[in-house]
Amino acid sequence: MSAFITQFINLLAAILLMLAFAMLSQRRILSLIYLYTLQGATLVAATAIVGYVTGQPHLYFSAAITLVLKVLVIPMLLHRVIDRLNVRWDVETLINIPTTMLIGIVLVMFSFYLAEPISQMSSTIARGTLGIALACVLLSFMMMITRSKAVPQVIGFLSMENGLFFAATAATYGMPMVVELGIALDVLVGILILGVFMFHIRERFDSLDIRHLEKLKED
Amino acid sequence: MNAQGYFSQILEILLALLLAPLLTGWINLWRAWLQNKSAPSLFQPYRKLHKLFHKELVLADHASSLYRATPYVVFGCMALACAIIPTLSTDLPLSPAADAIALVGLFALARVFISLAAMDVGTAFGTLGARREMLIGFLAEPALLMVLFSASLLSKSTSLTTIVDTLAHRDLAIYPSLAFAGVAFTMVSLAENARIPVDNPATHLELTMIHEALILEYSGRHLALLEWAASLKLFAYSCAGLALFFPWGIADALSPLALLLALPMLILKLALGGALLALLESVSAKMRIFRVPEFLATAFLLAVIGMLVNILLGV
Amino acid sequence: MPLDWILMLVLAWLLIGSAGVFALRRLTLVARLLFPAGALVGLFLFAAAAVALLETPQTRILPIGLPLLPFHFRLDSLAAFFLMIIGAASTGVSLFAAGYFRKGEGTPPGLLCLEYHAFLASMVLVVLADDAYAFMVMWETMALASFFLVIANHRLPEIRRAGYLYLLMAHIGAIGILLCFGVLQANTGDYTFANMRAQHLSPFWASLAFLLALFGFGAKAGLVPLHVWLPEAHPAAPSPVSALMSGIMLKTAIYGLLRVTFDLLHTPLWWWGVLLLGLGLLSALYGVVFAAVQVDMKRLLAYSSIENIGLMVAGIGLAALFSAYGMHPMAALALTAVLYHVASHAFFKSLLFVATGSVLHATRERSLGKLGGLIRFMPWVAWMTLIGALTSAGLPPLGGFVSEWLLLQSFLFTPGLPNAFLNMLVPVVAALIALVAALAGYTMVKFFGVIFLGQPREEKLSHAHDAGFWERLGMLWLVVGCVALGLFPVPAITLLDAVTRPLVGAGLGATVSGSQWLLIPVSLERASYGPVLFLLGVAISFALAFLLVRAFYHGRLRRAPPWDCGYPWQNARMQDTAEGFGQPIREIFAPFFRIKRILPTPFDAQPHYLVTVGDHLWHWLYLPVARLVERLARLIGLLQRGRIAIYLLYSFITLITVLMVVKR
Fold first, then answer.
1. Contact, C392 vs C441, CB < 8 A?
2. What are the residue ranges in chain C where pLDDT is below 70?
3. Nearest-CB residue to A10 (from B180, B304, B315)
4. So what's the ipTM on this one?
5. Candidates C422, C424, C587, C588, partner chain A, best to mutate (most A CBs within 10 A)
C-alpha cells in the first residue's frame, strides 16, 4: 500500500516536472495558463495524498487553499488580464526550444545533485521528489529568463512558487499554517500588483514586451 | 521452443498482415466521422491493395535494380518487425533474434532503403522526400530508442518479450518515467507514420509532403507493397505502444485459452487507439517542415528526461 | 612459433617493397606481381596472428638498432588481435591497389610500392614493439612512410600543404607519447614495457602518463580537438593509402591507448574513463555532423572516421570506468564492443575509401556535386559500396550494428555504478550514441545516394566504366569481412575473449559461446540478437512477397519516363545536390559550423552562390597557436645577424655561461 502511494507521489512529481518542461517550450499564452492550472491541480492532488498518508489534517486544509487559489482564482484573474490586455491569442517568438530544454536537463541533473544529501537524510515518504521540486523551481526561473512578454513572466513566477510549495510538502510535510496562509496572501497580492504593473507597462509603451524597459535606462 | 510458440508466432504474423490494412481503414473511418465527412468503407484499404496489385507496373526509364528491390525489402522489414513485437503472446520463437535495439535498427534499415530508392529515379520530388525522411529519421530513431530504453531500465532487459512480461505482471506499480516515455512515443509515432502534425497522409502535389514524395514514382505491385508496408508499420508502432504502456491481456502462459483471450483484447485496444489517433489528427494542424526538427527534438529530450527520472527516482 | 613467422612476413613485405625500387617505372610488374604478393603476405599475417591469439605471449629480442639498445618484440593477444586486423584489411586493400595505380604524375609506382609496404611493415612492428625505443622508431617510420604516401601527388600545392599539416600533427603527438614513456619508466632508466608494467606509479604520475598518452595517441587517432589533419590528409592521399590510413593506421592509436591504459598502467582511475567518454562522444558528434555537410566524398569519409574513432574512445572510456570500479564483466563487454568496432571499421572504411578510388578513376571527379547515377555504369562498385555504406550506418544485420549493439548494451549496465553522479550521465550518453548512430545513417544515405543514385549530374559520367578485376577482388574481400562480422558475431566474440581477459580480467567467451545462432552477452532474458535469424526473417518475407505476388497476380512491367507529379521539364540539376542534402543538418547544428555564405541578389547579372563550412576549432585554437609560434620564431629570428663576429660572440657568451654554471 505504502509503496503504491510512494509510486503515485513520484508519478505526480514527474507530471509536475513534465508540466514545467511543457511551460518552457510553450509559445501560446493561453496554453501557458492552462498548463499553470494543471500544475495547480497536480499540486492539490499531491498535497492531499501526502496529507492522507501522514495523517496530518492541516495538509488537507492547505490542499483546499491551493485548490481555491491556484486552480480557480489565479487562473481566472489571468484570463481576465489577458482579455483586458487583448493578448489572449498572442504567440511568443522563442529561440531554439531544444537548446532551452537541453539546459533544462542539465538543471534537472544539477538539482538532483544538490538534493541528494538532503534526501539521503530525510525519512519522508518520497525521497526523489525533493530533487524534482527543486528542478521545477529552477526550470520556472529559466522560463522567466527566456521570456520577453510580461504575462508569461508572471506565470513563470507563479509556477516557481508552485515548485517551492511542492518542495515544502514533499520534504517536511508542509509549512506551518501561518506561513502557508501568509504565502498564499502574498501570491494573491503579488499577482494583483503585477496586474496593475502590466497595465502600466501597456499604457506607457503600447506593448507588453518588457524589452522596452531597457529604454528606461539613462544613457 | 515448442509447438505452441510456433503457432502463436505464425498466428501473430498472419494477424498483422491481415489486420494492418483494417487498422488503416478504421482510422480513416473515424477521421471522416470526426470531420463530418461521409466515411469510406472500413475495407477500402483491401480494395485499394487488390486494385494496385492488378495494375500494370510502370517503371521509370532509368530506375535501377535497387529501386525494384526496395518495396520487397521494406515489406520484409515491416513483416519481421510485426513478428518480433509481442502482440498476442510473449512466447515467440523469433523474438530472441531482435531485441529493442535491433527493432530500431530494423526500422532504420527500411527507412534507408526507401530513401535510397526515392533518390534513385533522380527527380526533384524524390530527393526532397528522401532528405526529409532522413531528417525525421535521425531525430525520431534515437527518440524511439530512448523510449524503449526507459522500459529497458525498468525490466533490466532489452529483450522485447521480457520487457512486456515485466510490465504486464507488475503488482500495480506506477512508473513515472513511463509518463514521459509515453508522451515521447506518441510524438515519435506520429512523425514516423506520416501522421498529421508532421506529414499529411492524404495529400499529394504539396511541397510539404514527405512520405508521399518518397513513393511518388512507384506504381502497381510495388506501390501496393509499400502501402501495405506503411500499414504494417503503423500496426507495429501501435502494437509496440500498447505492449509498452498498456500490456495487460498479452498471453504469456502456454495455454491456447490465453491466446484466445488475448485476441479480442488486442482488437479492442487497437480500436480504441485508432480512434484516439484519428481524434488527435483531427484536432491538430499540420506543422511547417521547419518546425518538425523542433517537435522531434522535444520528443527526444522528453524521452531522455524519462530515463533520467527513472534513474533519479531510483525505481 | 607465430612470432617468428610474423617477423618473417614483415621481412617479406620489406623485400617486396625493395623489389619495387628495382622496377621503378615498370607499372605492370609492380601492379600485377608485387601488390598481389603483398596481399598474400597480408593473408598469411592474418592466419599467423589468429593462431597467436590463443597462445601464451612470446617475446624476442633482435639485436638491430643501436648497439646496446636491442629491439624487444612481444606478441600477446592484444597485439595478435590488431595484427589480424592489419593482415585482413591490408589483404583487401593490396588486392585493390594492384588494379588501382596508373601511370601519371607524381611518385613512380616502384617507389610507391616501397613506401606502401614499409608503411604496412612499420604498423606491424609498432604493434609488436615491447620497448619504448622500438615503439618510437616504428611509430616514426609509420608516420614518415604514410607522409610520403600522402604526398604521392606532390606537384599539387594543396597536397603538399595537407602532407605538411599531417607530419606536424604526427610529430607533436609523438612528443606526447615519448614523454609518456618517460613518465612510465619511473626513473629506472629501463625503457622496456616489461619494466613499465612492473612499476607502480602514484596516482599523480599515472594520471600524467595517461594524459600524455591520450594527447599523443589522440593526435594520431584524430580525436577532437586534434583532428584537423585528418580531413586534409585523407583526401590528398591515393585511395588505397587513405584506406590503409583510415582503416588501419588510426587503429594503431587505439592500440596504443589500450596498451597504456589497461596494460602498462594496470588499473585506470575513474575520471580517466569520464574524460575518455567525454572526448569520445564529442569527437563522434563533431565528426558525424561535419561529415553530413561535406561535399567532397573523401572528406566526408574522413570526418566519418573521426566519428568512429570517437565511438571507440567512448567505449574505452566506459571500459575504464567499469574497470576502475572493479566491475570486470561489464568492462569486458564495453571493451569487446570497442574491439568489434575496430574490426568492422577496418573493413567498411577501407571498403568505402577504395570505392571512392574506383569512382575517382572512372569519372575523375571527387566532388559529390558532379557525380550521380553511377549505379547504372558501375554496378559492381555500387552494390559493394552499398554494403559498406549500410555497415557504416550501423544497420542490421551487418558488422557495424553488432558493435553499436554491444556498446549500447554496456551503457544500459551503467546504472549499476556506485557513483550517483555518474549514473545520471547514462541517459545523456546513451542518447548521444543513438543520435550519432542515426546521423551516421543520414550521412551514408547522402554518400551513397548522391554518388550512385539519381541521374548523372554531368555529361561525361555516362562514359564511366566499372572497376577492373583486381579492384573488384579487393573490394569483394572487404565486403565478405563486413558481412561475416555482421552475421557471425559469436565466433568472433569468442576469439575476443582471449584479448579482454588479460586487460580487464574477464571475457564474454563463456556466456556467448552457449548458443551458436544467438548473440547473448549476459543472459537470454537480458538481451539477445540473432543476425542470421534476422536476415532470414527479412529474406523469407522478401521471397514470399515476391513469389506470391507473381503467383496471384502478374509480373508485367512497362518502362516510361519518370512521372514527377506530371512536371515534364525535369533535368539532372533539379535533384538535391550534396549541399542541399546536408542543408537540414547545417541548419539544425548551425552553432557547430563557421558558415560563410555568398548569396546572389535579384540584380546580379551572373548570380552565383557559395557556401563554405569552416571549423570553429581551427579558428579558435589552431590559428592563435600558429600566430604565437610565428611571433616567437620572429623573436628568435632577431638573433640572426649575418655577421660571423656576432655568431662567435654568441658562442663565446654560451661558453662563459656554461663555465660559470659548472664552476658552481
1. no
2. 103-106
3. B315
4. 0.94
5. C424
